[in-house]
Design a protein that fits this description.
mainly alpha; single chain
């Protein structure tokens, strides 16, 4: 098995140029955490700021800020233990001024506005599929709906101050996909397509994710693909 640094050039090459600059870092970090390799974020980060792609100190700070937002979103999808390990792995190699970073990050506050934003973003992603999903949850539907709208989306996934809505949905899709959860993966394949990402670009991202997941020991057989929801967007 190659070391991670040997795999990353192929991952970078697979990411479509039409996606936001630096998307490969979000794809890689999300896939490593969700595939059970959060400790590898130290090797990934060292590669990302390495001599093949030298970054200024400001660019390194920006990368750290974006990765922090990836972890803030990922914990709602994969759980806090993996994210804690990932954060510790990054801390070993980051040279960011922690005091400045702490000033930049503001803990989200639960308000009626954040909950409304969460509900609105969910509606954009799910459209007519949302109510049928909630209808399967029985007496738990009000609980799940509140947690999703107020917390998961309202405070995290629908917060686009750092990552754009497309980038946030990429994190969401990848974190779910790498857990082998077919139905939720299909929900978010529809979601990323509804945000304007083409089927070809989604397929390209998935090929990159599958490289990382397979390297991490995950079985990617039977994973849902963008073509599976082609007529449902």
């Amino acid at each position: 098995m190659p070391v991670l640094e040997e795999l990353l050039p192929s991952v970078i090459a697979a990411i479509p140029k039409s996606l936001p600059t630096g998307s490969w870092t979000l794809v890689t970090a999300s896939a490593l955490v969700a595939s059970g390799k959060p400790e590898e974020l130290s090797s990934f980060y060292a590669y990302a700021i390495g001599p093949h792609s030298p970054l200024t100190e400001n660019e390194k700070d920006e990368l750290s800020s974006r990765l922090q937002d990836v972890l803030a979103k990922a914990w709602t999808l994969v759980g806090i233990p993996l994210v804690v390990i990932a954060a510790a792995a990054l801390a070993k190699v980051e040279k960011t001024n922690n005091q400045e970073m702490s000033k930049r990050w503001v803990p989200p506050q639960l308000t009626d506005e954040t909950t409304a934003n969460g509900a609105a973003f969910m509606q954009r992603l799910y459209k007519a599929n949302l109510d049928p999903i909630f209808s399967t949850l029985g007496t738990n539907a009000p609980l799940v709906k509140w947690v999703d709208e107020a917390i998961v989306y309202g405070l995290f996934l629908a917060d686009h101050h750092i990552l754009s809505e497309v980038e946030a949905e990429l994190v969401c899709l990848i974190c779910i996909m790498c857990q082998g959860l077919r139905a939720p993966t299909m929900w978010h394949l529809r979601g990323i397509r509804r945000l304007g990402v083409s089927e070809d670009d989604v397929d390209a991202v998935q090929r990159a994710v599958e490289m990382l997941a397979s390297w991490a020991g995950r079985n990617t057989d039977g994973w849902a693909r963008a073509g599976d929801v082609r007529n449902e967007v």
